[in-house]
Every structure is written in structure tokens, then in C-alpha cells.
Amino acid sequence: MPAPIEFFFDFPSAYAYFAALEIDELAARHGREVRWRAFSLGTAFRLTGAQPLTRVPLKSDYTALDWARVAQQKRLDFAIPEGHPHAGLPALRSFHWIDARDPGLAKRFALEVYRRYFDGSLAIDDVAAVIETAAGLGVDREALASGVADPELKAKVREVGEEAVSRGAFGVPWVIVDGEPYWGWDRLPMIERRLAGD
């Protein structure tokens, strides 16, 4: 079997959200699986000196317009949350805790977090709200609450971020196909052509 496609993402990124909606189906069309890897983009920003798009003059206005266009095309309820971007460490840690037990459920959790963050109904930096979101998918509240507070899990999240940066990630979505990196939701057609052998 070919190696899984690696999909590095962070919850405050709408472009990563758009990619998350497509990446598994794209891979499945070519007999591939996807390994979802959540990390804090802040790790890369600290190294590169970059900032979130919505905090950069001119880029922020264009980004808001572009996200709205893509969301409309995808028929998504979409609004940039007040105070965006939120760091979202509770969501990242919850994803990793769930992923260690059930990767399929972790993907469903990630998609639900994305949907609710970008429709304004979830603060991804609110531990209790994130746990409730997971509980709505059948995750044990108490076990998850204990898990996200575990220093070993916190270290794991940091390690994934450091690994992503060590492998070149400076933005999300960051997709690695057979060792070759692709940055951006708009690179998915290029990934598809590669997988098709074009």
C-alpha cells in the first residue's frame, strides 16, 4: 500500500477548513488514505516572523473576500469569528486525544470544530465548549477533560508542531504526498493530478 497522504492543519485557517472538506474524498479516488496532523500554526509564525492573514494590512481585506467567495461556492454558513484568529489549543489537544483512540472520530470532530468555529457557534479556545462539541459526537466528557490537561498530551501537540516546521510547513493546509509538500487549498487539483499520474 502507498504511504498515507499527510494533512497538516490548524483550526483558525479557513483555507485548511476548505481543504479538510475535500482531502479524504480526493485521496480515496486514488486508493490513498489521509493522516490528519493538527498543529499550531503559531509554531511556524514564530520561526518565520509571519502573521495570520487577517492581521496583515491589505491581505486581511482580500482574505475576508476570498473566504466568503469560497464558502458561498461550497454553500457553507460562514462568518469570520470575532477576535479571529483564536489560538485553539483546547481544540488541538482534543483532536490529538481523540485521534490516539479513534482516527475516524477525530476527523469527524475536526470537521465539526471547523464548521462551528466558522459559523460563530464555537470558541475554540474555550475548553468546556470544545469538550461539549466532542461529547456531542459520543466522546466521554470526563475522560477528554482529563486527557487535554495531561502534560504528555500537551508535549505531543508541541512535538507535532515542531515536526511540521522541520518538514518545511510555514502555512496550512500543508499536504505531503510521497515526501513532496504542497501548500494551500488551491493546490488540491495539483495533488489530484499527481495522484492520477498526470
From TrEMBL:
Domain DSBA-like thioredoxin residue range list:
5-195
Q: Which reaction does it catalyse?
A: 2-hydroxychromene-2-carboxylate = (3E)-4-(2-hydroxyphenyl)-2-oxobut-3-enoate
Which GO annotations describe the biological process of this protein? glutathione metabolic process; naphthalene catabolic process
For whether the record's keyword set contains Methyltransferase, the answer is: no
Name the Gene Ontology molecular function terms of this record: 2-hydroxychromene-2-carboxylate isomerase activity; glutathione peroxidase activity; glutathione transferase activity
- Protein's UniProt keywords contain DNA repair: no
UniProt-listed Enzyme Commission number(s): 5.99.1.4
Cited Pfam families = DSBA
* Active-site feature positions: 13 (nucleophile)
Enumerate the UniProt keywords alphabetically. Answer: Isomerase
The source's domain of life comes to: Bacteria
Which family, according to UniProt?
Belongs to the GST superfamily. NadH family.
Which PANTHER family is this protein grouped with?
Answer: GLUTATHIONE S-TRANSFERASE KAPPA, GLUTATHIONE S-TRANSFERASE KAPPA 1
Q: Can you say what this protein is called?
A: 2-hydroxychromene-2-carboxylate isomerase
Q: Which organism is it from?
A: Hansschlegelia zhihuaiae
Provide the organism lineage as a comma list: Bacteria, Pseudomonadati, Pseudomonadota, Alphaproteobacteria, Hyphomicrobiales
